[in-house]
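Please fill in the sequence for the structure shown.

STRUCTURE ENCODING:
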């Protein structure tokens, strides 16, 4: 059974989400502020987190920052429409996705199911899952990325984007193509989520992110992985 931590200061929202997810067979652990979420995260094996942004005691952004010091567990922000700036900031510090409140229960369940399928149900893997380009190595079995032999700490979204690019060297993917393949859905509005994740990958993998050696932009078309 997958353990999902749901954190929102509105208790009715937490209870509603628990009903939706429990009906799908997930075990829901509740929290109503960032401090409670961190405590629950430390005391339980958490497979996915649904995290509100605006909360008392400790907000979602600060909570996410603390979680990312220890884990790459998938995190989906729950945000109000007025919190667009915070959503972008959340992606900047390691959120994998966000859902705008009020949300459709079916959409919530679909997002959760898709995220868990991508990052928890890996299936049987073998050594052929290791892809190496230059000094970067990606192991799809262990979900570990190494640069010059040292492990690089990536979020699940960053890992999947890098995997897509490394498995298709020199192929150009538009931001929309990347979004559809990685998020598993059509973008409703112009979304800079891909650009944010690409920037993070460059910061973590490139010697000089401003002049990337591996993850290149093809102006007006998209991104590609340069084969060394």
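FILLED IN BY: designer on duty
SEQUENCE:
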């Amino acid at each position: 059974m997958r353990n999902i931590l749901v954190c929102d200061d509105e208790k009715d929202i937490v209870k509603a989400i628990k009903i939706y997810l429990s009906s799908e067979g997930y075990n829901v652990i509740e929290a109503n502020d960032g401090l409670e979420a961190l405590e629950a995260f430390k005391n339980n094996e958490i497979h996915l987190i649904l995290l509100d942004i605006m909360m008392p005691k400790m907000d979602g952004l600060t909570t996410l920052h603390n979680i990312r010091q220890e884990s790459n567990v998938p995190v989906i922000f729950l945000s109000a429409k007025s919190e667009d700036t915070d959503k972008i900031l959340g992606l900047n510090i390691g959120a994998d996705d966000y859902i705008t409140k009020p949300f459709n229960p079916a959409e919530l369940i679909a997002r959760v199911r898709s995220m868990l399928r991508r990052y928890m149900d890996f299936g049987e893997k073998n050594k052929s899952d290791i892809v190496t380009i230059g000094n970067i190595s990606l192991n799809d079995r262990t979900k570990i990325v190494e640069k010059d032999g040292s492990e690089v700490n990536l979020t699940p979204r960053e890992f999947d984007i890098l995997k897509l690019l490394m498995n298709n060297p020199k192929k150009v993917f538009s931001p929309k193509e990347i979004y559809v393949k990685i998020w598993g859905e059509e973008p409703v509005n112009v979304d800079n989520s891909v650009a944010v994740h690409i920037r993070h990958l460059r910061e973590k993998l490139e010697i000089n992110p401003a002049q990337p050696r591996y993850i290149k932009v093809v102006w007006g078309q998209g991104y590609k992985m340069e084969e060394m």
